[in-house]
Amino acid sequence: MELVILLPVIVFAIFISIQISLYFLGREEALAAAEEAANQVRSYGHQTSADKAAAQARAVNFLSNGKSWLVNPSVPPPVITGNDIDVTVSGFSVSIFPGWNISISEHAHATVEHTTTVP
Question: Does residue 45 belong to any structural domain of this protein?
């Protein structure tokens, strides 16, 4: 008798743990794509609008290769202010529950590389 009550709870807990895992996989993929874009544009002298577009394309290419854990990803161009580079990648987690869309947004920050002279 107790198994009749306990089994649905166990199955639900398993599904929730799978959903949590899918959420964290989506977060990791979004963060990795944001870091790829930030690394592309942080090189010395690569802060033009064409380089921003290349960095954005690199993040999109990263997300489109292989199995994606991020649904409907959005990659705006990197924002460069002074020596700071900010890249945000957002989307939704893969969901095993119909109609349950969990939003994901990850941010990567980098600084522009500068050459220095050695005395």
Answer: yes
